[in-house]
Structures are given as C-alpha cells and as structure tokens.
Design brief:
By secondary structure, this protein is mainly alpha-helical. It is built from 13 helices and no strands. It has helices at residues 13-27, 30-36, 41-64, 72-94, 97-104, 107-118, 125-141, 153-177, 183-204, 214-238, 243-249, 252-265, 271-294. It is globular.
Length: 295
C-alpha cells in the first residue's frame, strides 16, 4: 500500500488501524521465515530486502512516476532498519521466537517518551496505562518458555532488547518521513541502504549466504513479500496515525509470533503466556480508545 505524498488526515481512522493490524500480523511471520531461510541471520535480512526491492521500485514508479533521489530521513531509516534486522535475526537464532519478538517490541516505550519530549505529543494518563499494559503483557508472554532446544537464551534476549532501540529509531524516522513522502519511496530507499549493509555483515561474520535448497529459497522470497505487504502496510498507516499510537498497535506481532512458534517449533504456550497475550491485546485496544478520546 502506498501513495505519492503523506496521507490526508480526513480519511476514516479505521482504515489506517485495519492496515496497521494486518501489517503487524503479517510481520509476525518474519521470525518463522528467518528460521526456515537456511542462511545466516544477517543474510536472511539481506534477502528480505533484496526480494522486496523490485516490487517497491515498481510501486514507487507507479505512484510517483520516477524513483527520484533519497531524502536524508530515508537514508537514516535504512541504517536503523539494517541494525534492527541484524540484531533481531541474531536474537531469533539464540532465543525463542516469542522472546525475540516480544523483547524487540519494547519499542512503544522508547517511541512514546521520544514523541513526548521532542515532538510535543503529550500522551494522556490513560494512554500511558495502555502502553504499560501492552508491554507488561508482552513481558508476561516471555516470562517462561518451554519446548525446543535454545542455543543461548540470555544472549538472544539481550540482542532482542537492543533491537527495540533500533526499531524505535526506524519508527521515528519513518514517521517523520511520512509527513512529506509516500510509503513506497521511503521503503524502497530503506531497502537500498539496508541490503548492502546486511550483506557486508553476513560476509564479515562468515555466514552462509545462499539458501541450501528450495525450501530456504521459498522462505527468503516469503520474507520479501512479507516485507512489502506487512511493513508496507505499517508504513502506510503511519502517515495517518500518531507515531506513539502506531507503535503500540504493532505489539500484536508477538502474539502472532508466539502462536506460530507454538504450532511450528513446539515452543509451548502456558497459562502465563496466554494471559500475557490477552493483556497485550487489551492494552492495544485501550491505547486506541485513549488516543481517539484525546483527539
């Protein structure tokens, strides 16, 4: 989903919310596809952006008539997204799918504080309660994991926490860029900047670059399609919603990832995690209600 300029504010709010929820749900597949890619963590990030690039280029030309030149904010967003993918994919390698996704989605805390201090988007008390509930539910989901042998959970969890800061910087950069630019051009240049950085990282770390078989290639192509549809929907919605609000909604991603990790990798979901998922979703709904009431 994309357009040439920032979205008009007169469109129904539910359209942006629907796109945001669907995009976050699709992105919940990414951790699964990284595990199935048969490549190194950074290499999987490279293939994700490489396969997304042609589609994003076509979408950009279709909406703007030309590729154009990248803005400074797009270049910064590309750097932050490459760091986000690199740290997160290595987190996925060492810890559980749910932990990697949950811990990396502490982003709303960083985004809300930044938007409050620097963008003058002061949150209401109810919205802060919603953020606390959503993040608290996410932490509860990661409190206890079972099933599947994990390589190094403490290291994976630490990398995933670092991911939250890179993703927050990416989120803030995209939010700023969406004030004047369409989603497709921004995402295209993010991919142009991020792909070579991830490839260099993969080579320096001696990762396997090429997938071992058809299944690995299918997962890499799936990552590209998921990036365009999922991350693209999120970027599109960010032109229509406050940054802090959008960052809370994407917390449905760990709920989706936890469910898929349970189905595909036998990563058990216990009562605490089920409760955490319910609390997270409740916090997301409350954040939307609080944001709408403030407006």
């Amino acid at each position: 989903m994309a357009e040439a300029v920032a979205a008009p504010q007169g469109q129904p709010r539910w359209v942006a919310l629907t796109a945001l929820v669907l995009g976050a749900s699709v992105i919940g597949l990414s951790a699964i596809l990284v595990r199935l890619s048969e490549t190194g963590p950074a290499a999987a990030g490279f293939w994700r952006l490489a396969f997304a690039m042609p589609l994003l280029a076509l979408m950009t030309v279709r909406t703007t008539g030309q590729i154009g030149r990248p803005s400074k904010v797009a270049l910064w967003a590309g750097l932050f997204f490459a760091l986000d993918l690199g740290f997160w994919h290595y987190g996925i390698r060492y810890t559980s799918v749910a932990n990697a996704t949950v811990l990396s989605n502490l982003t709303p805390v960083v985004v809300t504080i930044f938007a409050w201090l620097f963008l003058k988007q002061r949150p209401s008390n109810l919205f802060l309660l919603a953020v606390a509930a959503a993040v608290g539910g996410a932490w509860l989901m990661a409190f206890h994991k079972g099933g599947g042998a994990l390589l190094n959970p403490p290291l994976g969890d630490a990398l995933s926490v670092c991911t939250a800061f890179w993703y927050a910087l990416y989120f803030l950069s995209m939010g700023e860029g969406r004030k004047t630019q369409g989603a497709s051009p921004l995402m295209f240049w993010v991919s142009v900047v991020g792909a070579p950085l991830l490839m260099v990282t993969a080579l320096l770390l001696g990762e396997p670059i090429m997938p071992a078989g058809p299944g690995g290639w299918a997962a890499c192509v799936g990552l590209g399609l998921m990036h365009v549809s999922g991350q693209g929907s999120i970027a599109w919605a960010m032109g229509r919603l406050p940054i802090s609000t959008a960052s809370v909604v994407v917390l449905i991603q760990p709920v989706v990832a936890a469910y898929l990790g349970w189905v595909l990798f036998a990563e058990a979901i216990g009562p605490l995690q089920a409760l955490g998922a319910a609390v997270t979703l409740g916090g997301v709904v409350l954040a939307q209600w609080a944001s709408r009431a403030t407006r």
